[in-house]
Amino acid sequence: MAAFAAAVLTAGGLVVSAETARAADADIATNGGFESGLTGWSCTSGSGVAVSTPVHGGAAALKATPAGSDNAKCSQTVTVRPDSAYTLSAWVQGSYVYLGASGTGTADVSTWTPSAPSWQKLTTSFRTGPATTSVTLYSNGWYGTPAYHVDDLSLVGPGGETGQPPAAAPAGLRSSTVTASSVGLAWSPVPGATGYTVHRDGAPNLNVTGTSTTVTGLSPATAYRFQVSATNAAGRSPLSSVVTATTRPADGGGNESDLPAHALVGYLHSSFANGSGYTRMADVPASWDVINLAFGEPTSVTSGDIRFSLCPVAECPNVESPAEFKAAIKGKQAAGKKVLISIGGQNGQVQLASTAARDAFVSSVSKIIDEYGLDGLDIDFEGHSLSLNNGDTDFRNPTSPVIVNLISAVKSLKAKYGADFVLTMAPETFFVQLGYQFYGSGPFGGQDPRAGAYLPVIHALRDDLTLLHVQDYNSGPIMGLDNQYHTMGGADFHIAMTDMLLTGFPVAGDTTKVFPALDPGQVAIGLPASQQAGNGHTTPSEVNKALDCLTKKTNCGSYQTHGTWPALRGLMTWSINWDRFNQWEFSRNFDAYFGS
What we know:
This protein has helices spanning 322-334, 355-372, 401-417, 455-460, 491-503, 540-552, 576-581, 585-594; strands at 7-10, 13-16, 25-27, 42-43, 48-51, 61-64, 74-79, 85-102, 109-127, 134-140, 148-158, 174-178, 183-186, 195-200, 203-208, 212-215, 223-232, 235-236, 243-246, 263-269, 290-298, 306-307, 338-345, 376-381, 422-425, 467-468, 478-479, 485-486, 505-507, 510-515, 524-528, 570-574. The protein is of the alpha+beta class.
C-alpha cells in the first residue's frame, strides 16, 4: 500500500512533508470485465467483441479473433505514476494468448500460454520509469489461430497524477424493481467519476457508466448484498453502504402478472376497421399472450370520460355480438392470455387536466374493465395528450396536472383491482428516448413541451408497470447512448432504443437526474407488423438481429450495448389485424425465434 505523507496543522496552516501524497494501490484498468462492451478498449481490424459466453466473472468477456496478418490485439492506455510498481493480470482462454504492457519506461513485459482450454490466470509485473505517466495494456493471439477470450483483467498499483483525488464512495444506493431473476439498482452520482462497479456479495459483478443498472441472472427467493464503487483516473473508490434485496419466488407475482418468459403483445382493432380488415376475438391465434383492445376513447379531449364499443356492423360486417365478444375474452383468459383495454391511440387525445377529469377516467375505465371482464389497462396516449408545463423540469417530481392526474388515476385503478392488474404502456420515442436530449420546454423555454413527457409517468408507476413497449416506429432519428443518431427500420434502431431503457440515462443530459433502468422483464420492443401498418417496418431477419444483440450480445453491428438481457420480455406489434393481413409473418417469426 502506498504511503501517505505526514501532515501537521500548525499555527501557520497545513504543512505537508516534501514527499507528495500518493494514490493508494487500486485496480486502474478501465472496463477490465468487459461488462460495458469494448468501452475503453481498441482492437485491431475490428477483431474484438464482447460476448456473454464463455465468461469468467460477471456477464461478459472479450472474444478476439486473429485473421491473416492480424493477431487480434486489444489494448487500452492507462495513466500511471512514475517509478511505481504494478501487477497486471487477466483470465484467458484459448491457444497462444498473450498479455502484456508496453511503454513502461523500463522493460516492457508480457506473459503467455500456449494452451488454455479452460480459464487460466496470467500475471506479470513491472515498474514504471522515472518519467513514465502512461502505459498501454494489451492482449493478443497468434496469426491464423482460433479466437481467444479474456476476462477480469486488472492493473493493480497507484493511480497516476491526475490532479484529482480518488472518487468518493457512492451514496444513496437503493434497490428498485425486483423480479425472480433480477434486481434494479440506482445510486447518486459521484462528482468526477468516469464509471461505477457493482459488487454482489462482496465481489465485483459488472461495470457501468451510468448511476443505475439491473443485475440479472439471479436465483429466485434469494437474498443478495449489493455495493457500488466509483472510478476516476486516480483509481477506484471505497465501497458504498450495503443494500440487501431478495428476489421474488419463481412463480412470479407483482408486476409480472403471470406472463410467459417471452411474451407477444398485439393490438386488436375492435372498435373500428381499416385496410387490414376486422378480426374477431375468437379468431386471434394462440401465439398472442397479451391482446390490447383498440381503443377506448374520450367523449372530449379533457373530459376523462372513456367509452368503448365494438365496431359498427356497417363498418365491420363480420363483427361478433357483445355476448360472443365477452365469451371469447373469457376463452382467451382460460388459455392464460391477458386482454386489456387500450386508451388513446392516434385519434384519442386524453388530457386529464383537472381532478374531475381524473376521477371520470377512473370511473369510466373501471366500467369498461368490469363490463368486459378485462385484465387491465394499456396507456397509449399520443399526440398532445401529455406535455410538461414551463418549470416542470424534474421527472422525479412532476407538477404538470395532466401528468400528476394520470399517475394518480392509474394508482387508483391498481389499488382497486389489486396485484394481478396488468398495466402496459405504448409511448412513442418522442416521449421517452428523446428525453435523453430534451425534456419539456427546457430550462429557458422554447422546446416542444411534449419531449420526454412520458418519463415521469413511467418512473412513478415503475413498481406497478407490467410492460413498457415503446413504439419504435413512426419516429424521427433519435440519439442513443453512444451520442449518435439512429434511424428506424433496422436492428440498430431497436438495439439502441432498448439499450436506453435497460441501461438508464441522464434526462436532458443532467447527470443529477438519471432515469433508472427498467427491469428487462418489463420491456418489450414495439414494431409494426407490416409495411402497411406504419413507418419503420423491420424485416424478420433484422428483428432477430436485434433480439440476438439484446439477449445474447451477438449480431450487434457497430452499436455496443451496456449489458446483455436474456430476460427481455418480448415483442409488441401494431397490430394483430395487420399481421393477419401479412400472412402472420410477425407472430410466426416470434414463435420460431423463441421456440413457441
